[in-house]
Amino acid sequence: MLAFSREVYDMLVSRARRGRPDEICGILAGSHGERAEVEGVYHAENVAADTRTNYEIDPEEQLAVMDRIEADGSEVVGFYHSHPMGPDAPSETDAADATWDGYSYVIVSLNGSHPFVGSWRWTGEAFEPEVVQLR
User: Fold this and answer.
1) Cβ-contact 119, 104 below 8 angstroms
2) What's the CA gap between 1 and 131, in Å, rounded?
3) CA 3, CA 125: separation in Å to the nearest integer?
């Protein structure tokens, strides 16, 4: 389960809308465990070759953000990115690029009349859906 506030939800959706038609991305901070709690959102620049259909965080920026999260007394909970044109689930590319076993991968999909925010945990081999709870 992944829990976050309405403020975090609204921030992710707003940033995804502003980033359209490109995918946006970043790192989620809070407490990591069976029930992960998201307390903060750290935006990152999308440096993928085609930002309209992929996302990539520069490794140096990713390390710097992860260090900042730890310095702030939090843990990395997972990662997020948007799908400006869908789908409402991880793509084959997302699965091929996933590397952090046991961490949440949040997708903000803007496909359709209402945004969809879903989360999946990477097992090392596949994404498993997880419940998203607003608190």
Assistant:
1) yes
2) 5
3) 24
Query: What is each CA distance from 13 to 7, 38, 99, 102, in whole angstroms?
Result: 10, 15, 24, 24
What is the pTM (predicted TM-score) of this model?
Answer: 0.94
> Which DSSP helix (H) or strand (E) runs through 36?
strand 36-44
- Token digits of residue 106: 């949040």
Q: Is 39 helix (H, G, I), strand (E, B) or coil?
A: strand
Residues linked to residue 101 through DSSP beta bridges, in sequence order: none
Model confidence band, residue 86 (pLDDT cutoffs 50, 70, 90): confident
Let me know: does 27 contact 66? Beta carbons within 8 Å: yes
DSSP single-letter state for residue 24: -
- Token readout for 121 is 């945990």
Q: Which run of H or E residues covers position 44? A: strand 36-44
pLDDT digits (tens, 9 = 90+) for 32-57: 878 899 999 999 999 999 999 999 99
Give the Å distances, CA to CA, from 45 to 5, 17, 80, 81, 127. 23, 15, 12, 11, 24
Type of residue numbered 124: G
3-state class of 89 per DSSP? coil
